[in-house]
Amino acid sequence: MIQAGIFGTSGYTGYELAKILDRHSEVAIRFATSRSLAGKLLTSLYPAGPDLPLIRPVDAPLDEVDVVFLCLPHATAAPVAVEALNKGVRVIDLSADFRLKDADVYAQWYGNQHPAPSLLSEAVYGLTEYARDELPQTRLVANPGCYPTSVLLAVLPVLQADLVDGKIIADSKSGVSGAGRTPKTSTHFVQVDGNFSPYKIGRSHRHLPEIEQGLSHWHQNPPGLIFSPHLLPVPRGILSTIYVPIKDGWTISELRDLYLQTYENQPFVHILPDGELATLAHANYTNHCVIGLNLTIGTLILTSAIDNLLKGAAGQAVQNMNLMFGLGETAGLL
Ligand SMILES: NC(=O)c1ccc[n+]([C@@H]2O[C@H](COP(=O)([O-])OP(=O)(O)OC[C@H]3O[C@@H](n4cnc5c(N)ncnc54)[C@H](OP(=O)(O)O)[C@@H]3O)[C@@H](O)[C@H]2O)c1
């Protein structure tokens, strides 16, 4: 039985993780932390959740666990990762702290010096479908961002096959839980309900360098990228509509075959049949990324849907843990 600890359990991703691990037959939750709810049960905040006792982060018994999940804000996660690694505990970090390989790029986009730059080179970027060979050996996983997961899983098959012939435009929409539990004016019910808002469009969102890093990791001459996120008036789910200019001569059925072959043995990526477009309803409350394909005047239009809290966060984190510890990839996730 794997002994696991969760930091940041009162947050949205921490709560989803607690639910998954609570029903995972190979995992025991040894501790779950929350600063604001220490001494209480998780059910005091989430009545439907497992009735886990919550403890202060400083009281976490790191000596008693095999793995910790960091469901914390960026910059607060890295110091906890260092402490856990020093005690021989494996780390799956859901924050952005170990996703970008370059500490200067991290500082530029996240506004603080990296708290542990010497660990960046060893962290495995845990886009599971493309990292499965590295996961069993690693002690540190940088779980990908939610938008990057939806964009990279959709784009990488044509990128790796060298079929992209120009700039990629990713037009992405997220439910409000993507912004976390702390209320802000922009995520207030009255601002969001009945509204639909673009934000940080073009090349100004923090997930842009993460997606670009992914494109350049898997192709030596990556295409340009425009990435425009939007806030949807729904609690959860991401839908990315991605426009990819394709080299001449490719038909939609050849492209679909490429996607079907690429993801043939991947249990959590589902390619839709001809004519079907991905929607939030295809993916919400599942760990699946669901991808639809359409070819219009030389442009492949991909629709890619995930649940931001599952395949975009806690679900992918457990998928990564399963492979790190030699368990079945789908354990706890179906
Ligand atoms: N939401 C998503 O869709 C999503 C998807 C992918 C990745 N992520 C990333 O995953 C991480 C967690 O996201 P989330 O949406 O779960 O956030 P959240 O709902 O805001 O929860 C984060 C939790 O961390 C704790 N916390 C906050 N500040 C802290 C600090 N300074 N020190 C220690 N603990 C602190 C808080 O709990 P207490 O105050 O009770 O301790 C809070 O409930 C973030 O880095 C986020 O960017 C989020």
Task: Considering the chains and any ligands shown, give keywords for the structure.
334 residues; 10 helices; alpha/beta; 13 strands; binds NADP nicotinamide-adenine-dinucleotide phosphate; single chain; 7-stranded mixed sheet
Short structural description:
Helices cover 28% and strands 20% of the residues. It is built from ten helices and 13 strands.
Helices and strands in order:
Blueprint: E1 2-7, H1 12-22, E2 27-32, E3 67-70, H2 77-86, E4 90-93, H3 103-110, E5 124-125, H4 128-131, E6 140-142, H5 146-160, E7 168-174, H6 189-192, E8 197-198, H7 207-218, E9 225-231, E10 238-245, H8 252-262, E11 269-271, H9 280-283, E12 289-296, E13 299-306, H10 310-324
Parallel strand pairs: 1-2, 1-3, 3-4, 4-6, 5-6, 7-9, 11-12
Antiparallel strand pairs: 7-10, 8-9, 10-13, 12-13
The structure holds NADP nicotinamide-adenine-dinucleotide phosphate.
Residues 8, 10-14, 34-37, 57, 71-74, 76, 94-96, 145-146, 177-178, 180-182, 308-309, 312-313 line the site of NADP nicotinamide-adenine-dinucleotide phosphate (NAP).
